[in-house]
């Protein structure tokens, strides 16, 4: 039997959904993530979450085995009573509705669900349809799509303001019967229009033992922010000693907030950290971040420290801003600026701030923006660097500014392209040349053949560059002694025009093959490129943004020998290479081998530095790259650059990896021959090492990493850690030791740094301990990455 009734009290289930977070989190601090355990083990009891708006005007249907109406105006439903309104369900053994007073009574096997929470009780529910007040005794609740669940001795919902009061409430994320931890409170209150709920007399229990008492706590019930303390963090390291941070979150406005963090370091002192985030208007956002330490105790107590280091504060400032100025996103801009004190070369190594990128001991300071269109882009940038290295003989050049115009237009078989820029290079050193450079590179690309398996393209263009150089009367000694520049050889005005012709073509052959009783497809893809650029003497041009390009398979098919525009190498060369791939019957690429070499009809005569010795060889390195996917678990990657004239290996590396269902092991070796990298190496570089992440038992995992410099006979980075991970709690212990730079006291060497991380996690509630809490393969200096270049 089905009878339609309007307004049955299903609506209080949504109020209970707000109470689901009873005491789970402090203000603004997300619960720690952990490696997931099998779903069937931990979360088989968790219903799926159903998102969407709750339609309170949807029709209500009621089914029951027996329906009775009494003379005093009651409607009685008995036996498998079920009420449905949209995604909301209510079931009970007995339901009684008083039509005049609109009071409701339910008894036995009560269950309510609204797609986000399920509430059950074996006792009684009372309520009123008019006031929407509801009371439920001995309730149990389970969140949907989340392991959070708990109990309450009594649940009261006040309909006028949507207030929910729970008496004798508990919360845990542990599966039923495995309550390792619970948070229990005598009283919990949640109001519908409030961001936070309140709990009184809350106690954290580990098993049957109470371990922490909260007289009063607030917890989030909406995805909104409110000012308050966040969880503290604790680290222990040999350089800083005990390192404690206690952040305070300040919700200034809906589009502004800040996090203020006092940071106490046992060996250095107390630092203030401030992060200010802002969203001033639609399409724009930014972050201002700063750190300030009035004096560093470790420097004050060090007799090697200069007076400036002992007295001056240590600080960092970072500004990141991203802007979109129109709805279509054509006009954009961004800022990335980081600075520390001018003498503080070791700031990032000592304090490990969460901002600032240090590349080749340079901190980037950049302002850029422009117009971006499908076929062309016009951008500009002002860029500077702060050098965090003492006694540097030269300073990098500033862009003051750079204006770049790039365009590409397809016209059927023809494509037109233009790359151009106008750049002013400045330098803080008055004994360094400076310049304004204009460069234009028009190109016409013609597809001679463009068919499946056959491609041939001709690329005709030119390089035009004009320099206006400011040459000081006396150059810094470095330019003369190291690079061979002289004030008399550099010209104040230079024009360079070089035509260019490139013809590139490739074929793809494939055949069916059968190996190891399996069907495969093998391809052979030969590729040829001819490149011609005439020679022009360029020793009269300074070096502003140019260096030698690293050779690999893909760079051999480039039209450049140098990265940057200050040197355009002459070329009369043919590059030949081939790639062979093997695909299995499902289309997965199992093997890729690539081999290439460039043959110069005349050796290139353009040098990077005037004092550089010309290389008379007519052949490039024989370059090899290979990847193997053996069985979706075993992978091998290898690279090699062989000097075929001297029969020496210039560079090479090999990586072996096993990766299966959370089990990971990777080994690698890297070699560089100092004869070919003399500007950066005094000795050959031979480094070996690897990393592992391995479950050793259903709930135990091991992580480790070790990298060693074979030539210098020292360890680069060593890490070992152990983690126990259950459905609702985890503990991890990590020990790491690595070589750390010290540019203040030991700029030519490294010191050994050691850290210990011990962290406890109550999933869905909190984590406490030392270290970042990350438990993953790789080390601090050498993070894990997959070098394999295979499709699928």
Provide an overview of this structure.
By secondary structure, this protein is mostly beta strands. It folds into four domains: 2-226, Sandwich (lipopolysaccharide transport protein A fold); 255-381, no CATH class; 393-606, no CATH class; 621-792, Porin (Beta Barrel), CATH 2.40.160. The protein is 4% helix and 57% strand. It has six helices and 48 strands. The strands form three sheets. It has a 26-stranded antiparallel barrel. Strands 5-6-9-10-8-7 form a six-stranded antiparallel barrel. A two-stranded antiparallel sheet has the order 35-36. A hairpin with a 3-residue loop joins strand 45 and strand 46 (729-742). The two termini are 56 Å apart. The model is unreliable at 1-39 (pLDDT under 50).
Q: Over all CA atoms, what is the radius of gyration? A: 34 Å
* Count of individual helical segments: 6
The level-1 CATH class of the largest domain? Mainly Beta
CATH homologous superfamily placement of the largest domain: Lipopolysaccharide (LPS) transport protein A like domain
Strand content: over 45%
Share of helical residues: under 10%
Q: Which keywords apply here?
A:
globular, 26-stranded antiparallel barrel, lipopolysaccharide transport protein A fold, mainly beta, single chain, about 5% helix, 6-stranded antiparallel β-barrel
